[in-house]
Specification:
Layout lengths: L9 E7 L3 H14 L4 E3 L8 E6 L4 H23 L5 E6 H13 L5 E3 L7 H11 L26 E5 L1 E2 L10 H4 L4 E2 L2 H13 L4 E5 L17 H9 L6 E5 L8 H9 L6 E3 L7 H6 L6 H14 L4 E8 L6 H14 L3 E6 L17 H24 L5 E9 L5 E5 L5 E5 L8 E9 L3 E6 L15
The structure holds S-adenosyl-L-homocysteine (SAH), iron/sulfur cluster and FE3-S4 cluster.
């Protein structure tokens, strides 16, 4: 325990699981705890405060929390023997879904806090500390609103910006509407302020986040209140060169948003648009509110607006009632669209969701076999997409040094990882790289001599 004379700086370790929303939330937690004297560290070993930011989406994700807590117990006991206290906090979607059970099953946990309550974290931590006579660096004023907090500190040239939270879609397999609550859109002015603050700190690319990001709406009247309007407003911010958004729902791909992909140079030609299945029958049972044909039609419209747009998606295989024929419809959809990348998962039965009680649960063997076939096809498409860049010159946003000395790392417009030889001073610039080689997960090439600003993307399709 800290005595009155000792420095009051404390070490904070946050371990983040799950989606980008959790990554963003972890950064906000770091920011709200800074005034209490918590400085981030890279490993849990010497941390005074450990926060597990958890994911509940599949059973495996939840299991991970309990194994992690086992490790943390040993860590906490070791430190206690040396006379130092460790506070363990569970945040995120498991905290929201299983708060009480967590405290019961894992006594190592001092505090459980759900995603809607992070603004109360300083208060909760301070209470926990006071209860044990521990001192913190600063007294705090409890913030009633997350939004009232200072803009996040940028850590590089790309950043996430949360614009929307929660979900009202209630897909029958999914826990998110229960762990993240109802759809909520942050006000336009707050988002613009945050984006400007990020741009002032050197951020060149922002990714707008939300569980249904394209369901964002402002309070202003028609036209002013749409997600497309938000993107247009952000595109006017000097310094920001690239805008992305994730994750979108197909039913929210409105005409103005599709058109914007053709008009707005700063909107990058890559879209993550989860489809889940290629069988309209299964999509109906999933309560996805779109058919396979609807999805193909949306992609066609996007490609008319922006011929080189690259697509990514999510699939679930082995949803209750999925037959071999349904699964083949999924493979057909993959062949029809041609994805640049994709995530695919075996269906995981989540207690409390409607699908958990459905007839026709698919066996582990069948699901595993289908997943393997699907991933083989998706892997082939990803390799082909990357290989198709060879010979092209792509504008690359330089993000960091690469692994090898002299090597730099950046992102293509299509969100590919790009490696090339160059100087560290290039970080933050958009440079031309001539692509010469590819693997399934990245591409590489040679820097063109003339670094340049602004974006110009070769419009030739795939
Ligand atoms: N709002 C986003 C993200 C949801 S979670 C969306 O609509 O896409 C990310 C992905 O996890 C989902 O797209 C889905 O493919 C997968 N997923 C969600 N629940 C699942 C479950 N019970 N079993 C397997 N995969 C699941
Ligand atoms: Fe889950 Fe469906 Fe909402 Fe996405 S849209 S978060 S899959 S319920
Ligand atoms: Fe997982 Fe919660 Fe994100 S369940 S995927 S961390 S919204």
């Amino acid at each position: 325990m800290t005595n009155a004379q000792a420095p009051l700086l404390k070490r904070l370790f946050i371990e983040t699981h799950g989606c980008q929303m959790n990554v963003y939330d972890s950064e906000r937690m770091r920011d709200v705890l800074a005034p209490l004297g918590y400085a981030p560290v890279d490993a849990p070993d010497d941390a005074d405060l450990v926060i597990l930011n958890t994911c509940h989406i599949r059973e495996k994700a939840t299991d991970k929390v309990y194994s992690e807590l086992g490790r943390l117990r040993a860590h906490k006991e070791r430190r206690a023997e040396a006379g130092v206290k460790t506070t363990v906090v569970v945040a995120g979607c498991v905290a929201q879904a299983e708060g009480e059970e967590l405290m019961r099953r894992a006594p190592v946990v001092d505090l459980v806090v759900g995603p809607q309550a992070y603004h109360k974290l300083p208060e909760l931590i301070a209470r926990t500390a006071r209860a044990t006579g521990e001192r913190l660096a600063a007294d705090f004023t409890p913030e009633e609103k997350f939004d009232a907090l200072p803009a996040p500190k940028a850590e590089g040239v790309t950043a996430f910006l949360s614009v929307q939270e929660g979900c009202d879609k209630f897909c029958t397999f999914c826990v998110v509407p229960y762990t993240r609550g109802a759809e909520y859109s942050r006000p336009l002015a707050r988002i613009l302020d945050e984006a400007r603050a990020l741009a002032d700190q050197g951020v060149r690319e922002i990714t707008l986040l939300g569980q249904n990001v394209n369901a964002w709406h402002g309070d202003a009247g028609a036209g002013e209140g749409t997600f497309a309007h938000l993107v247009r407003a952000l595109a006017r911010i000097d310094g920001l060169a690239r805008i992305r958004y994730t994750t979108s729902h197909p039913v929210e791909m409105t005409d103005d948003l599709v058109a914007l992909h053709g008009d707005e140079e700063k909107l990058m030609p890559f879209l993550h648009l989860p489809v889940q299945s290629g069988s309209s029958r299964i999509l109906k049972a999933m309560n996805r509110k779109h058919t396979a044909e609807d999805y193909v039609a949306i992609v066609e419209r996007l490609r008319v607006a922006r011929p080189d747009i690259a697509l990514s998606t999510d699939f679930i295989v082995g949803f209750p009632g999925e037959t071999e024929r349904d699964f083949e419809a999924t493979l057909d959809l993959v062949r029809t669209i041609g994805f640049a990348s994709a995530y695919s998962f075996k269906y995981s039965r989540r207690p409390g969701t409607p699908a958990a009680g459905m007839h026709g649960q698919v066996s582990e063997e069948v699901s595993a076999e289908r997943l393997q076939r699907l991933q083989a096809l998706l892997g082939e498409q990803q390799r082909a997409f990357n290989a198709a860049q060879i010979g092209k010159t792509l504008p690359v946003l330089v993000a960091s040094a690469g692994r090898r000395p002299g090597q730099m790392h950046g992102r293509s417009p299509y969100l590919q990882s790009v490696h090339f030889d160059g100087a560290p001073a290039l970080v933050g610039q958009i440079v031309d790289v001539r692509i010469e080689a590819s693997t399934q997960n990245s591409i590489s090439g040679t820097l063109s001599l003339r670094p340049r600003e602004g974006e110009k993307v070769a419009r030739s399709a795939g």
